[in-house]
Amino acid sequence: MSFTAFAGHKYLNLETFKKSGDGVKTPVWFAADPANDLAANAARLYAYTIGNSGKVKRIRNNGRVRIAPCDMRGNVLGEWVEARAEIITGAEAAHGDKLLNKKYFPWKQLLNFFASFRGRGRNGFVIRPA
Fold this sequence. Notes:
7 strands; alpha+beta; 7-stranded antiparallel β-sheet
């Protein structure tokens, strides 16, 4: 499956799945890895979320996700695409965070600043074609 539909978009609607199989949809910021063509199987989209969020629990339990380009309110603007999500750490997480910081400058830096006072961790994740 190709991620070309996400070029030029600021948000993607991420559907993760509960153990019951029910889907939970959430709009998130994302950044594409420019080293990989969005049309290729090597395409990578990076995103992050609060460390103890439901998304993290659901992705750890089941990496199958569906994604679609959307607006900030989650209104879908294109077709749903099957994908795989994985929580990342270390160098890959730092790489994804760098891409997100660049794409969402200065908003992400402001959110990072205020989040530092809350003491809530964050988890990065990568989305790959299924």
